[in-house]
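Quick one, tokens below:
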């Protein structure tokens, strides 16, 4: 098979280093352009958020693709065969992990709201679409593109396609699942516990289906579910601090509803330490 491409691809160099480097470059460029009054809109405009995400994650993926190609990485082998996974069971998993994510977020923010109510109230009042920006239509279109297309593709490629297998090669497949999922959760600071569980489910979907397209599609569907309520009811009231403190018990109910499906799936899908990552399966 030749040399192992995941011995060449390094997290610190090709992911973390690229992420930090491009972030510093963007910040420097923005500050220079702002100083010269050359920015097309204000630096604090929320429109920069989806643009920055596209640039940063797009650059990381480009570096990984170039490095992988030089190391002999086969993209066809990485993405795997045509997806084959039970649709009904897949939808049940998506619903369960979504309920788990909402419930864990509720239980996480409840004790924080008792200690720092202002911080939690600010987080609860944040909207995805209903914000002030110089170009609201462009902002909305970019957010939808990032959430439904760009993020599922790039995040699954980085976290499940590369990091999971890089760390599986270095240690073993269970360690790769845990480390890549925890890192994925930490990058989503609003709900690290829920997104860590999401990462675990996506990793196991990849392993069980032998296709990276399955977690990509599942990721996209999950994000569609997440953004649909605000799209359908843009004028609806945001979740308030009093609602959180009075309805924390709904988080417990949600966890109880989601747990059976997630436990069953994880228990029956968890790989042994001796199993190779999906890239090396014939």
């Amino acid at each position: 098979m030749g040399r192992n491409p995941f011995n060449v691809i390094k997290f610190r160099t090709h992911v973390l280093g690229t992420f930090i480097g491009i972030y510093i470059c963007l910040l420097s460029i923005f500050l220079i352009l702002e100083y010269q009054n050359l920015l097309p809109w204000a630096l604090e405009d929320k429109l920069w958020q989806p643009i920055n995400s596209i640039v940063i994650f797009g650059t990381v993926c480009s570096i990984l693709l170039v490095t992988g190609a030089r190391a002999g990485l086969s993209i066809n082998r990485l993405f795997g065969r045509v997806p084959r996974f039970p649709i009904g069971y897949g939808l049940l998993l998506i619903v369960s992990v979504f309920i788990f994510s909402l419930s864990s977020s509720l239980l996480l923010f409840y004790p924080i709201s008792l200690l720092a109510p202002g911080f939690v109230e600010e987080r609860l009042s944040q909207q995805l679409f209903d914000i002030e920006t110089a170009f609201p239509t462009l902002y909305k279109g970019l957010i939808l593109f990032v959430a439904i297309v760009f993020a599922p593709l790039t995040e699954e490629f980085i976290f499940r396609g590369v990091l999971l297998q890089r760390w599986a090669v270095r240690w073993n497949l269970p360690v790769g699942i845990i480390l890549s999922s925890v890192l994925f959760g930490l990058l989503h600071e609003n709900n690290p516990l829920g997104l860590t569980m999401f990462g675990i489910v996506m990793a196991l979907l990849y392993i069980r289906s032998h296709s990276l397209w399955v977690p990509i599609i599942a990721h996209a569907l999950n994000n569609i579910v997440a953004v649909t309520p605000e799209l359908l009811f843009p004028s609806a009231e945001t979740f308030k601090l009093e609602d959180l403190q009075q309805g924390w018990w709904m988080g417990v109910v949600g966890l109880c509803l989601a747990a059976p499906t997630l436990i069953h799936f994880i228990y029956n899908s968890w790989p042994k330490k001796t199993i190779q990552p999906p890239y090396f399966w014939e």
